[in-house]
Design brief:
By secondary structure, the protein is of the alpha/beta class. The chain has 16 helices and five strands. It has two domains: about 15-105, Arc Repressor Mutant, subunit A (Orthogonal Bundle), CATH 1.10.10; about 140-300, Glucose-6-phosphate isomerase like protein, domain 1 (Rossmann fold, 3-Layer(aba) Sandwich). It is globular, with a radius of gyration of 24 Å. Keywords: DNA-binding, Transcription, Transcription regulation.
Length: about 325
Amino acid sequence: MEVVITIEQTSAVIVDGEHAAGVANRILLRRPEMSGAMAKIADYLLEYPQAPLKLSIGELAKQAGASAATVTRFCRLIGYTGYAPLKVSIATDFGRSTARTSWKTDIGRAFGPHDSAGDVLSTLINAHSRTLRETASAIDLPQMKILAKRIATSRHVDIYGVGGSAFLAEEMQARLYRIGVNTHVWSEVHAGLTSAAIQDSGSVAIGISNSGRTEETIQMLREAGRAGALTVAISNNPTSPLAENANVTIVTSVHEQFLQPDDLSAKHGQLLVLDLLYLLTAQENFDRTTNNLAASALAVATHRRPRRSPASMRQAREPQQSID
């Protein structure tokens, strides 16, 4: 059965409020791009995060020193269709944890030179956990199922990633290739553009970029789209140039601030998405998946040392007695 994904070629998939990745995260991510009026709204919401639950759009605009129209544009900039979805998302955020008194307690902090190792570990775990939760909340599962079917039946899959994203791209390529999906990974732009140019409607091209602004990845994904491939962007920025050049955008979540554990969490959100996409693809042709995994495991079995029994391990640890 043919599966068709009906999505405008030039539009990114923006996540609505009911699938929010965390309002505070979105505000912090987009804050550097905001005009003066929008920045006032951002700062006001970070200071008074529950204000939209009590104020109308006009009242909030007055409190923030902006206009109602600017509030609407602000909502769209951070990924919501309007003020109402923003309010729903805020209510959801606060409903998840009664311990939160302010977004400032949730968004984490930079670690300092005098923090104990235990404090650094705790902050890091909190950042990773938050990124995974917020990424999971933003995943459109029906969309992922459709995408997995397209990958499983694809003639050819290209994955593009540069720098740190290249490692994730290589990991995904190895997994898909092992279960029988013809997949190739490209981090060098000339080779990637060559491959992208020969894709067609039976192909899938995936671009991975945390910021969504990596020029080489954008170029490769754009070229694959021109050739007719279904293009997918995996990024934490739903309005990035990479997303604008994709048929489908999968949004991850991370603050992206220097020397905070959050920027170290970016790869965990991306890996969660890739792991899920891999497993859903494996489900599409489960017999092929299991047969290929078994065959590949058998092929490398002779290169692995056999497991040692507890008795043999104890014997190896015992001192050898010399015989005169």
